[in-house]
Structure formats: structure tokens, C-alpha cells
Amino acid sequence: MHREAGEFRSIATLMLQRIIALALVCLIGMGGLQLWLERQQQEKLFFQTMALMVETSSQAMAHAIWDIDRDVLSFQIRRLTELEAVGLVRVHIRSTGEILTSGRAGGTQDVPSYQTVIYAPHALQQPLGTIEVWADRTYYRNLLWESQKRVIPGYLIFTVLMCLMVAWVMRRDLGLPLRQIADFARNLRPETLNQPLEVRRPERARADEIDMVMQGFEHLQQALDRHIKDLDGMVKERTAELSALVDEVKRLSRLDALTGTFNRRAMEQRLPLEMERCVRYGRPFAVIFADIDHFKRINDQHGHAVGDAVLKAVASRLQACLRANLDWMVRFGGEEFVIFMPETDLSHAQAVAQRLAADMRATPWGCNGLSLWLTCSFGVAEYQSGDSMESLLERADHMLYRAKDLGRDRVCADATV
Ligand SMILES: Nc1nc2c(ncn2[C@@H]2O[C@H](COP(=O)(O)OP(=O)(O)OP(=O)(O)O)[C@@H](O)[C@H]2O)c(=O)[nH]1
């Protein structure tokens, strides 16, 4: 889950908080157990001390009861109660049923007591009574508290010191390295991928998880770097392919699909430039319109496939008769072609058209196994000052119409020059 920057809390702090919480639980558990054991120990010691005192006194009390000497018995009881550890003494004389009690107020609940039988001095099998002694509450509590005071500070100091040391170690070994890695990851940019991740931390004999994270970063950076370079290469390659395709599409968009000659679109782009050049250098520029005679008959008699083949063959033969890299040809429409001849005046263009017409009619055309005889009509015009593209083409086209009108298979040139 993504968290806002304001909610940040260092992982070392979080772990420290948890360790402190666990340490407190341990402190309470261990300290409680230690206190309980200490209390058991103190109770046992106290009980043994009391037993010793009572056993000692009970012999003197046995003589007093045997001798029926109340004063001595009372004295012995008082002596016991004068001891700091004793809170209450109760003696029960069996022969009279009398109970003698002496001691300080404070109750007998929750304090240890010791009870024993008082036997006759010389006949140990004869019980004279019982004596019961309770500890002094305040004395007993102080005794326990004193022993516990020794336990609690020790545990507290131990816990605090442990937490301080753990905090220091966590900060040095975990918090600071993680912070450096986080800063590095946050500032990583494609242009800084080659920058190595450097983490300042104490020397170690063996690699740990932080070293593994650093290694992972290094591998990731190298892989990303390679990937970016591959992508760059691919982009360059694709761009080159795309550019070649665009060039090819541009080229094809200027060509006629059937004959491979330029189309009208190409003519509209190129002709104005060609005319501008001829004006600038004062050079002649001629145009020849060529149209296959009675082409409709070929289609009608032999089908469109033969018509197409004838169109391709005528285009190719016309093209072959032109000057390479200088003259250029356009399929103007249907069975009509236009030839553009830079550096050529009307008479030379007319001569070329005559040559083409003679070439057309001289040899039969072998198409799809057929041998066809074809002729073409030609209209020739030369660029005149002030001509537009349309006017120049119109004059040549007009000459073509005249050639058709005069009976076809001939050349008509624009004599208005
Ligand atoms: N096979 C084929 N025929 C075409 C193509 N373009 C135009 N034509 C045909 O060319 C014929 C031109 O006929 P017309 O304009 O009457 O001219 P023509 O028959 O050559 O007669 P003239 O030009 O007067 O000698 C039409 O029948 C068109 O269908 C093409 O790309 N392929």
C-alpha cells in the first residue's frame, strides 16, 4: 500500500519500539518470577528462624507449665513478643484449658505462623499444651520489600541498557544503511543508472541482506541500462525502417500502379519546378502528348488483360526511347502518356515524336501470345514565355487532338512558337 511521505517512520524505530515492548513484557515476566522465588526463599528462611526461636522458648515454657509457675511462663511469652520479628504469641495449656495471648495488634492474616506442641520436660511423650507464634506484619513486609528492592533495580537497569544498546546497533547496522539505500532509490533516474549504490556501514566478515539488496540494485541497474540501450537500438532500427517505408510510400504515391511511370500527382509536383528552371536558365522545354490509336478496339477484341499488357509494353518502349536522367514521362490517363523533355526545342521534340511514331508502327507487339499492330498519335508543344502548366499542356493536347482528327498515326506540333 502506498503511503504519503508524512506517514514515514523508520523501520529501525519501529523495530526498536517493538523490542522495547517485548523487553518490558520480559521484564515483567522475569522480574515477577524472580520476586516470587525471592519471596519463597525469604519465607522459608523466616520460617526456620521462627521455628528455632519457638523451639528454644518452648523448653523453658515446658518447665514453667510443669512447675505451674505462671510468672515464668508469662515472662517467657513476653520475651518472645519483645522480639522484632514476632507479632503475636498464643499458648494453650492443656491441663487447664487456659489460653495465654501476648503481642502487638496487627492481625494474624497473611503473615506466616509457626505452631508446635509443648512436651513435659522429662517425659517427652506427654504433651502439656501448644504454642503458636505469628510474625510481626510490619517486620515481615519490610523484610520482603528489602529483598525485592535488590531484584527490581537490577532488572530495570539491565532492560534500559539492553534497549539503549539495541537502539544504537539498529541505527548503525540497519537504520542508516536502509536510509542510504532508500535515498539512492528515490533519486534514481534513467540518466544516472550507471551511478553505483554506495552505502557507508561497518566492515563485515560476511555478506548480509543489505549486501544482497545492493547486489540486486546493481543487477537491476545493469539490466535496465541494457534494456534502455536495446530499446534505443530498436527505436533507431524501427525509425530507419519507418523512414524507408515512408520514402517507398512517397515514391509509390508518385507512380502509376499499372505502368510504373510517373502519375499526374508527380507531374503536378515536378512540372512547375522544371518550368521554373527552364525560365531561370533561358533553356528550351518541350512536351509530347502520346495516345494509342483505337485502343478501345484492343480492349473490346482481346479483353482488358491484353489492354493492360499493351499499356505496360507501350509505356516501357516509350521510356526506353527517352534520354535517361533527363526526359521523364507521365501516364496522363487511360491510354494517354505525356513526355517532358528539358533542354529540347520544338523541332527536336517533333523529331523525337516522329521517331517514336515510326518505332510504334514498325514492329508488331507481342502480348499474351498475340501479335498486335499498333500506332500512336503525338501532339508536341514547346514552353513559351508566360506559359502556365495548364496552358503548356493544353497546347500539346490540342496538337494531339489535331493528329487524331487528321487520321491518327502522326505527329502534330504547335507552330505558334
Ligand atoms: N485495359 C485497359 N483499358 C483502359 C485503361 N484505361 C483506359 N482504358 C480504355 O481505353 C479506351 C480508350 O478509348 P477511347 O477514349 O475511345 O480512345 P481510343 O479507342 O484509343 O480511340 P482514339 O484515341 O480516338 O484513337 C477505353 O475503352 C478505356 O476503357 C486501362 O488502364 N486498362
TrEMBL record:
Record PANTHER family: DIGUANYLATE CYCLASE DGCM-RELATED, REGULATORY COMPONENTS OF SENSORY TRANSDUCTION SYSTEM
Q: Which residues form the GGDEF domain?
A: 283-416
What are the alphabetically sorted keywords of the record? Membrane, Transmembrane, Transmembrane helix
What's the protein called, per UniProt?
Answer: diguanylate cyclase
Domain HAMP, first and last residues per copy:
172-229
Q: A GO biological process this protein is involved in?
A: signal transduction
Question: Organism's domain of life?
Answer: Bacteria
Residue ranges spanning the membrane: these are 15-37, 151-170
Cross-referenced PROSITE patterns: GGDEF (PS50887), HAMP (PS50885)
**Gene3D superfamilies given for it?**
3.30.70.270, 6.10.340.10
* NCBIfam families (UniProt xref): GGDEF (TIGR00254)
Q: Which organism is it from?
A: Comamonas aquatica DA1877
Q: Which reaction does it catalyse?
A: 2 GTP = 3',3'-c-di-GMP + 2 diphosphate
Recite the lineage of the species.
Bacteria, Pseudomonadati, Pseudomonadota, Betaproteobacteria, Burkholderiales
Recorded GO molecular functions are: diguanylate cyclase activity
Q: Spell out the GO cellular component terms annotated for this protein, sorted alphabetically and separated by semicolons.
A: membrane
Which SMART domains is this protein grouped with?
GGDEF
Q: What is its EC number?
A: 2.7.7.65
